[in-house]
Amino acid sequence: MKKIVILISGRGSNMEAIVRACEVQRWPARIVAVIASRADAKGLLFARAQGIATVAVEAKNYPERESFEAALVAALDSFTPDLIVLAGFMRVLTAPFIERYENRILNIHPSLLPSFRGLNTHQRALDAGIKVHGATVHFVNAQLDGGPIIAQSVVPVLADDDEATLSARVLASEHILYPRVVRWFIEDRLTLNATRVALTPPEPQCLITG
Ligand code: GAR
């Protein structure tokens, strides 16, 4: 049984999708904890209701990133995770933290990377006038939103979209994409080759929805 810890900062809808998929699809894995960078993260309520251990490591209580990460490491290591899943975790992690869990941290980002790294991806996509948008699941490395891409979901951008309609369409695709990728990891199907990630046996690493 592999052990998964999910890190959140807010709503936690991706975490919820992963928890549900793990249970319904009977993955050989267990979500052992949900850790939040804010004590008021809404997702903690769902996790607690599922009987999952929850911890708040409040970024605002730590003056520097190093002391915040030391507390995060202590919380994480107490659960001895095989995999750390960032699901709307809105803190930038330092290189030493990432190296400690090398190739064991996944993230979902709400754009088709390498386009639109960082924040406000949906509005920036609208402003750029692009006709397809989506989400990316990648291994986390020291480059912000720059780690090896595992899979992407693609949705259309419609003429009358605003930030709310577009982000809702992307989020719905995230809820399909992220559990699928976490399961691939759990099943040892992912191989990292420099910047490229292979899936064995192969299947499309691109999900088209919307
Ligand atoms: C998701 O759209 C996720 O892709 C994004 O935050 C949202 C979290 O929603 N992540 C980032 O922007 C990371 N830089 P959720 O809390 O409902 O899963």
TrEMBL record:
Its EC number is 2.1.2.2. Pfam families: Formyl_trans_N. One of its GO terms (molecular function) is phosphoribosylglycinamide formyltransferase activity. InterPro entries: Formyl_transf_N (IPR002376), Formyl_transf_N_sf (IPR036477), GART (IPR004607), GART_AS (IPR001555). GO terms for cellular component: cytosol. Pathway: Purine metabolism; IMP biosynthesis via de novo pathway; N(2)-formyl-N(1)-(5-phospho-D-ribosyl)glycinamide from N(1)-(5-phospho-D-ribosyl)glycinamide (10-formyl THF route): step 1/1. Gene3D superfamilies: Formyl transferase, N-terminal domain. It catalyses: N(1)-(5-phospho-beta-D-ribosyl)glycinamide + (6R)-10-formyltetrahydrofolate = N(2)-formyl-N(1)-(5-phospho-beta-D-ribosyl)glycinamide + (6S)-5,6,7,8-tetrahydrofolate + H(+). Transmembrane segments: none annotated. N(1)-(5-phospho-beta-D-ribosyl)glycinamide binds at G12, S13, N14. The keyword Cytoplasm does not apply. Catalyzes the transfer of a formyl group from 10-formyltetrahydrofolate to 5-phospho-ribosyl-glycinamide (GAR), producing 5-phospho-ribosyl-N-formylglycinamide (FGAR) and tetrahydrofolate. This is Phosphoribosylglycinamide formyltransferase. It comes from Mycoavidus cysteinexigens.
